[in-house]
Every structure is written in C-alpha cells, then in structure tokens.
Fold these 3 entries.
Entry 1:
Amino acid sequence: MRRRVSRRAFLQGSAAAAAGGLLISKTVLLEAQPLPRAVAPSDRVRFGMIGIGMQGSGLLGGAITLPGVECVGAADLYDGRHTLAKEITGNTSLPTTRHYQELLDRKDIDCIVAAVPDHWHRRVVVDACNAGKDIYCEKPMSHNVADGLAMVEAAQKNKRVLQIGSQRVSSMLCAKAHELYAAGAIGDIEMVELTLGRNDPTGAWEYPPPTDLSPQNLDWDTWLNDAPKVPFNKLHFARWRCWRAYGTGVAGDLMVHLISGMLVTLGWNEIPKSATAMGSIVRFPDGRDMPDFHTVLFDYHGIPVYVRLDLGCETPELARFMGPKGLFDAGEFELRHSPQSGVDMDPSYYSFSFPAKMREEYVKQWHAEHDPQLGKEPVHEDTVYKGHDWDDVRPHLQNFFSSVKSRKPVTEDAVFGNNAAVACHMANESYFRQKPVTWDAASKTIKS
C-alpha cells in the first residue's frame, strides 16, 4: 500500500532535495531621530498639564525631559496629584489648581497637554481651542462620535494644533513600515490582523485607588461631568475604563493604538465602512460593563481588518500586514519583513494523484525546467528592523511641541485622530447592539 504523505512533509522534503533554497534573516538597526540640543530662551515652549493620573504622570515626566520644554502649571480634580506634579517637575512652587480653566486663561502658557478620562476629552479640547491654546490630548480622541466631530470643528475653526496621543505613529518603526509598503515590498494589502492580549488584573484596569481618596480631596461631582450622577466611588475614579459612562473599553485603550499604526503604515486616513464585533466579560466580572474580550472584523474599502483584544490571555502585540509579495509583522521593538515569491518552489503535490510513471515523468520535467543552477540557489531572506520602543511618548510629544512653534502639521491631527476613534466607537456599538454596524458618511453617524 502506498504511504500517504502530508502536504507539509512533501513540501519540506521536496524543497530540500530540489530548490536548495536557503532561508536566512538579517537585522537592520534603525537610528532614532535625534532630539534638539540647546534651545534659545525665546524658543522655549511653556505648557500647562491637565490630568496627572497614570498616563498624565508619564506624559509630564516625558515632556520635561525634552529640550526647551517647561511645565508652568498643572490641574487635576484630585489634590494628591497636585503634590505628584510638583514631585515630577521638581518644582515645589509649581502652580496647581482644580480648575483647568485657570491654565487656559494664562497668557504665559503656550499650549496644553491633557490626559483625562475619555468623557472629559471634548470639554477640555474644545475649551482649549476656543481659548486659543494648542493641545495634545490623549487617545482615544473622543468618547463618542458627536464629541469627536465637535473637537475637529473646534480645532479647525480656531486654527489650533491638536495632536492625539497614539504615540507609535511618530515612531521610526511605523515610518519604516510605511516606507516599505509604499515601495511595494509586500504588494497591495490583502488583509490585516491586529492582536493584543493581557492576563493580569492591572492590565485589565483593576487599579488600586489612592488610599486617601475622599470627597474632601476630590471634586467628585465635577469629575462625573455629563455622566450619570452616582455617589462617590473610588473604583469608578481609578478604574474608569471599565465603564461605558466614562471610557471606551479595550477598543479605546488598546485597539486605537493598533488602528492608528495601521493607518500610518498603509497611508490610509479614513473611517471603516463597517464593523462586526463579538465579545463578552469573561475574566473580570467585577461590575464593569465594557467587555474584557473583544473581536472585530472591519471593512476598510474592501480590505478585511481583523482585531482581537483579550484581557484573559497574554499574547504579543502584533500587527500583521499581508500581501501577495509577503508580509510585515510589526511589534513594539521590531518590524519583520518576510518576502514571498508567490510561485511553486517544488513539484505540485497534486502529482500524487498521478499513476507512478506519469508522476515520475512530471517530476523529472518540473526539475529540469525549474531547478536553479548549482551555486545559484535562491536565498529567501527575512529582514528584521529593530528600533526604539514605539510606545515611547517623547517623539510624539516632541512633534507636538515643535509644531506649536513652527505651525507645521503634526503626525496625528484632529481628522486622523477622529478617524481612528470612530473605528473604536463602531467596534463598541456593534458589541452593544449585537449586530454589524456601518458608517454613514452623509449623516456622520453609526448605523445598524
């Protein structure tokens, strides 16, 4: 009886015996963009910080390391973060306040950096733009579609610089991926896969609230903004991403980074045509109403983009771009380009369905026509580009502060930030409506 050979075993054996190709990998180190050195006093940028929580403290600490950048005021509704702002800046005299409007009224403040809960983005950004202040606002740009449209209008009407904080779009790795794609390295994109998984309570936003938090040192009623009025709740303050009233879940926290990086890589700047989502609360039934497992299939002008976000299983963050000439695998520290020829490298395994003599003649003829000459065997080479952490906020902040002085465009302006955010809103709407949704460009609304 003839032994059946699997497709994989056949290809592996045939490749070794026939083509003699060698698979190797080379590494290319990407040089980071140098930061400016000495900055004249007249070119210094003075900013006010609004929100000094987990992300805000990181932005503040990163911003003050940039040459020619100075924090001259900070605002937060929790008094403990006034102390934190002074500790980060090393300035015990730093003016701090609960009322961010005081920063907008100051003539000596050039711009604002804001890291507030999603349900505060619209108010802070619109107020800043109307006050004539440029502003860097954390991602996702908006809490809902209407908020994002209002923010775009405010920035454009007031001719303000608005940078949204998906920092990887300013990274060398994203720039290299875009350069390679634009040069045709993988051909026209056929599909994109974006995945990220965590597996710990902190990664699922189960943060420990400040131990001294109370209505005496936190302006709770103001913090709620336009969310439903509920009694003081430490967990809502620290873990706001868990609730739809304040945040946008894994879509707004994680997906928006993946989507933003994809848009830069492919040179797109658009809202998807449709989104079909599935998800649930699997690992963390802690009172939250946002899913901790969320999968989405987007349609970007006919190109499928699959996204998986999981807070119950640790998996690498990966953006995979697939085309007829190969693929890119993009991650936090490297970009791998794996070319593919798209042609048969071996006799077709379909020939196992031929009678023995016919198959023997076919295989012999195939080798005669396709085998490389000795010493000229093809080399199948992956190229790995290693670069600086694409989650470093400093290049993105530097791009913003430079634009404040030069008035040149930023890497993630209001339109780009809104397009990425709307994709996340579509993912959430599909999850809550339990049906596919589409983007209606005429009415600028999400429809089922």
Entry 2:
Amino acid sequence: MGHDNQEFYRTTPARAGKMMAIMLGICIVGGAIFFGLWDYWISEPAPVVAMMAGDSDPTEVAVHTGATIVSDLSFVESSDFITLAFNALPGEPNSNPTINMEVGDKVIFNVVNDGKSFHSFGVTEDSDGFGGIIPDSEVGSPTKPLKSGEGGTSEFIAGKEGVFYYICTVPGHREQGMVGKIIVGGAVVEDEVIEAAPEPMKEAEPMEETTLVSTKPVAYDGSISLPAGSGVPGCQETNECYIPYHVTASAGTEIVWSNDDTVAHTVTSGSPQGGPDGIFDSSILAGGLKFSVTLDEAGKYPYYCIVHPWMVGNITIE
C-alpha cells in the first residue's frame, strides 16, 4: 500500500516558542500567588482536612501567647469503683480542681493513673459525653488507655473564652465523676453546684436471696455474655455483669466470652482489689467481639473487667 496521500501535521518554531512562553507565564503567576500567601498555607489546615474530621466550620489554630500553667492530675477511684475523680474523691480537698486561664495561656497536664482501672485523658468543649477531644490534649485513648501506674503529658492552649472540660475519655467514666472545668477569660459558669461532703456510709443491709441471680455455679454450655448496659454501675447488685456469673467446666474446655455491649470491656483473671493475676486477659474487647481461653488446671478462676471493676465473674475448672 502506498503512503503518497498520508498527511503529516507539523508546527513552526515560532508557534512552539509562543506556547512555551505562555506555560512559563502561568508558572510564574502561580508561584507568585503561592509564595505571596505562604503564611496562610502553613498556619491553617486545608478546609478539606477539617471536613474529613467532621468539622463543618474549621476553627483557627490556638497560639500560645500568654502564661504557662502546670496541672498535676491523678485518676482516683472509690473502694467500690463506682465513684471516680481527679486527685481526690468528691467532698475531699482538691477534688477535680478548676483551672482558670486567659486566652493565649497554655496549661501542661501531667497525668498519672493512680487507680486500678484503665483510664485516658483529654480536653473537650462538650458539656457531656466523651467526644470532641481537642488535638494534643490527649493522654492515652479509650482503645489504648493508661494502665495502673502509667502516665503521660499533654497540653491545651486556650484559643477563645469559654468553659472547657478535662475528662477521662473512657466511656462512662466522665459520668462517674472524672471531669473538671477549665474556665477561660471572663466565661460565666452556669448552674454551678458546690457538692457537699458525702454522708458517712451506712452499713449495707443484707440483700434478700430472691433479688440476686443465683451465685451457685452452672455448667458451662455456651459463651458467657457481657450484656448491654454492664458498663454502668448496677449490674453487680444482681450478679448480671457477666451472664452466667459463675460457671463450671472440665479441664481443657474452651471458655468463650461475647461482648454484647456497645462499650469496650476486658475479661481479666484476678480481682479488682488484688489486680490481674496474669493467667488470662482479653485486653480491650470492643463491642461485638469475642474472647476465649482454655484452662487445663483444676481450680477457681475469678475474673473482672479492668475498665469497669464492679464487673466480676467466676470460673471453676473441675
């Protein structure tokens, strides 16, 4: 086949030079815009980043222009693990101390877990719940909390006037008392309530047998449930924090637990008073997950939830 009729398209050196000049001009103008707004690019996150993080209205980054405050906080618990607080229990001096600061001030938190449960720390503007944690204020997290004796350091810079809260970010622990106020500038604290010292504990009256789920062991015949709501105090009154509360099984039986709650728990051998004994530990078990262990030695195996220490259960291997 011949190629006599095939057409070829070419350009001239002048046209190519003109195109290169236009491209160079675009690069120069774009560079001028970029470097002219250099402070903007490095001082604020891109709007898309804030949108992906769930912020519909991105806020300015707080800048440290004032004083530095150091706050030492420790997680403490009542003997029954129902009441939680920072530094001291309610009614005692220095319980959940209020921090007062001005816009531009920075507070450095030195946090240590002096309790036996798992805890984590953060600052939020939300008046309830465990969300909205401000970046750089966290120590640990609900999925990677501080164990007993562990600690860490974080900071919070006041970018505006208002009331903020330092809390334990483990679900439920704020509601049990682990929350303190940070008052920035002339913010007005509404509905401020001064808690009175708690009344002396009365000796508990014997509970009727009919109000308790049987504490007698039952033969293991399926997974042990961590029921919905067990992350809130109360299930210990009816031995329903783990269901069944006490099971028996033959040596070599695989024992399975199912977290049927929406809150993370642990299945940890030992007791709240004595701590883990190292025989088995599920670590943080999120809602919907399962954990299993096979016990080959006969004996009694008490266990509990480190996150919610009122949750206790028992296994007897025969």
Entry 3:
Amino acid sequence: MQLSEASSPVKSITPHEFDGLMACLGPFEKHPDIAIACSGGPDSMALALLGNTWAASKGGSVTALIVDHGLRRESGEEAQLVLQRLNVCGVQAVVLERGGGSILNDIQAKARDARYGLMTKWCADHGVLHLLFGHHCMDQVETLLLRMERGSGVYGLSGMAEIREAASIRILRPLLSLPKARLRATVNDFGVDVVNDPSNDNSKFDRVRIRRSLTESKSGPSIPKLYAMTARMGTSRAALEDAVADVLARTCEIFPEGYCLLDWDTLVTAPLDIRHRALARIMACIGGNLYTPRYKSLRNLDDILATGSLGGGRTLAGCRILRWKSKLLICREPSAIQNAVKANGTVSWDGRYRIKVSGAPDGVVICKLGTARLATCGGLLETALIQKIPAAVRPSLPTLWRGEQLLTPHFTGSKDIEIENSSDYRVQITFAPRNPLTSARFTFA
C-alpha cells in the first residue's frame, strides 16, 4: 500500500495496476457497465480515464457523471468543458443538473448530498450497479481529522469504505489507498487538461483548512500513520456492525406497512453501545431518514425505555415510539410526513416507499392517508386488511388521491401491489426505506 509522497519521480497508475485494484472490489458482471463521478479535477479525471480502459478490456462500458451544482456562475460552462474533454478521450459522459435554489449554509455537505442523490438516481434509472469515486488516501486522512474535531466515535473515525452497498448500487473507491500525486501523474501521462474548483482553496471550509494544516505542519502524525488509524477503526466498526445486525435479527420485526415491533425486554440486555446503535438503525429505517439520530437523543430515549417511563409514547427522528401489547411499536410520525407529491412515474415517497404509477389521470397525488381522511373513508378501505395494522400506523400509509377521491381503496400498505380500474392506471407500492434496517458491513478491499 503506497501512502507517502516520495521525493523520487512519482509513477502514474498503470492499467495493469488498476485492474488489480478493481479485482479487489468485485465481483462484477461479465461485461460490466460502471458509472464514475467526475468533477473534471485531476482525481476524478484519472479515475474516468483508467476506468474507461478497464471497462473496455472487459467488454463493458463507462459513463462519467458530471454534476452541475449551479453554485457558481461559471459552473454550467465548466460542466460542458469537462464533458467535451471526456468525449475527446473516448469517455461517454452526461451532465446532471441540480435543481432548486441557492445553498446558503453548510454548502459542501448539502452539495455532496445533492450530488450523491443525482448520481445514484441516474444509476438506478439506467440499471448501472457500480458507482466509482476518485477519493485517495489524503481524502481519507482529511475525513478522519474532520470527524475527530467533531467528536465522532468508531463509526466516524473509520473514514470512507472502499466498498459500500447502497439501496440500488455499490459505491466503490478503487484509489483510496493511493497518494494524490500518483493520480496527478496519471492525468499528466494521458495529457488531459483538468478543472480546478476554487472552492478547494477556500479556507472557510473545514476540509480545506485541515488540508492546509496537513501540508504545512512539520510535526504530528504522518499521513501513513493517520491512514492506518482509519483501517484499525474500520476493523472495530465491522465487528460492531456484526453485533448490531445480530441483536436486530433477534429482537426486531419489520412490517412492509412501514413499522416495526421491537422486543425491548431482550434488547435491553445487550451492551449499551450495541443497544444504542440498534435503536439508531431502527429510527433511520422507519423514519425514512438519511442519517441516524444524535447520540444524546438516543441516550435520552434509552433512559426512558430502561426506566419504564415511556407513558403515552415519545417521538424521535420522525418516529413514534409506543407500547403495543408486550412489545414496542415504532412507526412513522404522521405530522412529519412531507406534503403531497405528483403521482408521475417512479417516486421515492417520504424516504420510505418506492411508488410507481402509470396511466393515472391528471391531478393525482400521493400523500399520507391521515387521521381525518381515514375517518371519512368508511367502507372504501378493506376493513379486514386495515384492522391488522396497528391504529397508530394507519395515518402514515401512502395513498393516491384525486381531489377528495381515494384512488387506492384496496391498498393498506401490506405488500407490493398492482391495481387496475376502469381508468386503466396501474400502481405499484413497495416499502423501500432509504436506510434499510441493516446494511452491508464496513468493507475493506
């Protein structure tokens, strides 16, 4: 593993070496189609060029995904310039544009989330299973120091995984163990110009400040030692994730209506840290959230549950926590559900459901059933089906409406369905939370 920048001439990454790096991230299909995040900078351009050669040798294909965040006046022109440069090199590329207004705070984090969202959606829409990023060892060390400043625990200090499985794709970082200088040398050998984003030199961003301190400091841990620290933390994280998955398998039952029943009497016997992490996974899954709740909130909930002072219930991270028979019921908090969205094509609704609608008449929207509407539906809903669902869950079920007309009277969220009526529209509703209850463990190549 090469982690330091030597004084001798820096060698570029050869196709043979890159083939070995990719082999560690497999398996891949016989003729792999991959996507590569490409900003036009030296790191992502090196990856795009190497990835294109690799895919061609396997009879596959590469698409470079260029995201125009619209954060700077010249960003659109830069995206088109990167597109042209890639096409000249024989790399297929597309530009994805971020919608919405300006980002006024937490710019880098929100831009990153928008970028990931656009690229993962493109991959899902085009059946691409592998999305590659050009992160290198300096990025990993910066991530470690940034999270240390913010007081992260083992999960945060393990840095970025070389392999991460998301809902519909695998996120791969084949260059994570290599120094940035080798990526620059690779681009130079290809003779390709790159784009330099001025935000990478803006010291108001924490990551830039940390990067400068690393390059300017003559004391403190070396980059190889810091990188090795993330590897040790990653080993600990993998063991923790195994323990959390085990206890969730024994104590938690997820229902496709979007709620879970938790055997708290068994979970409370687990070690405190494992218990907190299990609760965090449940809240992220049922609440449809991108991130788990903060430690302090989890600790407060744990104290309430452990002391038997839940009373009429609590809310946390968009979830309701209630006693239900001998277990805990955790379901979506109806008041936290987003407004109605148009029923058009495939929609990710509330971070919990994937809803595919075809042939619906104009004016149809997807929204929660809601307490008020539930009370007025009467016989439109199949009583036998909905009675099987705890009352606290029913208002949060997804339904299709046209004005005040309920278009999915037989659906209670119990399973994947297809509905046809005289209007010949079709609906398929699947519980597919943004964060599943458990995911692939932290993985090393």
